[in-house]
Structure formats: structure tokens, C-alpha cells
Amino acid sequence: MAQPEYLRIAAHLRTRITSGEYGPGDQIPTLTELCAHYGVSETTIRSALRLLAGEGLIETRARAGTRVRPRPPIHRMAADRYRTVPGRKATPYTRDQNIEWAEYRLDKRFERVVADAEVAALFEAEPGLELLARHFVFHDNGQPTQMSTSYVRWSDVGGTPVADPIHEPWAGGTRAQLATLGIRVVRITESFTAGMPTEVEAATLRIGSGIPVLRYTRRHIADTGRVVEVAHPIVRRGDTTLVDFVIDLDE
């Protein structure tokens, strides 16, 4: 079966962008020029451009035409990002982004909820466990780059500063918060998947529907073996996130 014309044109334009022929900020030829070049209708060209916009490769602005979008920098998620950094006001997120505290903004919404079967299983508890759900959107210099829902046990945090969103963002992150409650975290687990964004994820992170996202589940585990926090899911754009692990082996 022959490939639809708009897919062929999108593939050709994609190659011209990824090869650097059209660089970040460069203007793409006009609709009229593209129609003449490819010998197709304006509808076909619009379909091709819509596909490339969904992939985050181009953007169209009023009176500015269609341009190649600047590619965001790659951010490296290192395995040691949860370690405490003496003398530095930071969280794992600011370390991932390599930004200072003044460059960090956090949107937050807190609510008291009851764990469903999925979240309860992550806590290794029965459904019905009372939790504080903390919905976060993380901003790097005004750009949203991560979103998450973090759950902590209401029996641990109820009536404490940890349950009050006024204290967010909290230097040191969740591990530091729990330490103020006498809870010593000794293990953090993370499980990763990837996929295409939901409408909410694409809108929140301001990305095209064709840009994949990285989703992962994190658990903080105390020295007693009890799961004390679950973030499910944490969502980042996948094309600019590099998960970096170093594994030291004893010979």
C-alpha cells in the first residue's frame, strides 16, 4: 500500500530538520512554497506540519510563520541524586536539572485520600489506607519539566509541617521531610516505563502529543522496612531525559 502523501512529506521535512539543514529557530517555507515544491494541496501540507508539530519539531506563531523549535537540553538523572549535598539548598529535582534554588518553582495541590488497590499494593498495605496526596508540577526557570503525585501516610504526617503545602518546596526533598518526623529512609526504589503522553501530561508539560514521556514510580523505604512514600507516577518528557546508572562490581 502506498504511503499517504502527508507522511512522505513529513518524513522529508523531518530529515531536513534532524540533519541540521533547518536549524533551531529557522523558518520553514510557507504553505504556498511547500505546496509548489511537493505538488500537493494545502490540506496535505497542513497535515504534514501538524504531525511535525505534534512531535515537537516545529511551532507556528501568529505573524511569525512556522519555525523549527529549539531543542531543550538533555538532563541527566544520576543514581546518586537522592544523596544529601552538604552546604547546598537542593532537591533531587534541582540536581537533575542542574539549577539553583532561585531557578526552581513548584506548583502544588494537597488532598487527603484513601489508597486504591494499586497504590496500596505499592505501600505493601491494604486498600483503604489513609494518605496525603501531593500533586506537583516542577518548573525549571518557568518551564514545566516534571509532574508527579507523591503519597505519604496520613498517620505519619497528619498535623505536621509536612502536611502543609506552604512549606513546599522543601530543601532536601521527601527524605529530609521524613527525617524531621524521625523516619530514617535507607532505601529508594524506582521503576521506569515509557509511552506517549496523555492529554493532561502534554498540556501540563507543554509538549506535543508526539513527544514520548518517561514515567516512573518511586518508593521511599524506612530502616524498619516500611514503605513511607510512593510517588506514582513521576512524569518527564522522554526525549530530553537520560537515566544514568553507575554500577560498581566487586571483582
Structure at a glance:
The protein is an alpha+beta fold.
Structure write-up:
The protein has 251 residues and is of the alpha+beta class. It has helices at residues 5-18, 31-38, 42-54, 92-97, 117-122, 154-157, 173-179, 199-205, and strands at 58-61, 65-68, 75-78, 104-114, 130-140, 143-153, 185-195, 213-222, 227-237, 241-244. The chain has a six-stranded antiparallel sheet with strand order 4-5-6-9-8-7. A hairpin with a 2-residue loop joins strand 5 (130-140) and strand 6. Helix 1 (5-18) crosses helix 3 (42-54) and helix 2 (31-38) crosses helix 3 (42-54). The longest helix is centred in the first third of the chain and has 14 residues, at 5-18. The protein is elongated. The chain starts with a helix and ends in a 7-residue tail after the last strand.
Give the topology string: H per helix, E per strand. Answer: HHHEEEHEHEEHHEHEEE
Overall mean pLDDT stands at 92
CATH fold descriptor of the largest domain: Chorismate lyase
Morphology: elongated
Total individual domains: 2
What's the CATH H-level superfamily name of the largest domain?
A: Chorismate lyase-like
Task: Spell out the key features of this protein.
251 residues, alpha+beta, Arc Repressor Mutant, subunit A, Chorismate lyase, 2 domains, six-stranded antiparallel sheet, two-stranded antiparallel sheet, elongated
Topology:
Elements: H1 5-18, H2 31-38, H3 42-54, E1 58-61, E2 65-68, E3 75-78, H4 92-97, E4 104-114, H5 117-122, E5 130-140, E6 143-153, H6 154-157, H7 173-179, E7 185-195, H8 199-205, E8 213-222, E9 227-237, E10 241-244
Parallel strand pairs: 3-10
Antiparallel strand pairs: 1-2, 4-5, 5-6, 6-9, 7-8, 8-9
Helix pairs in contact: 1-3, 2-3
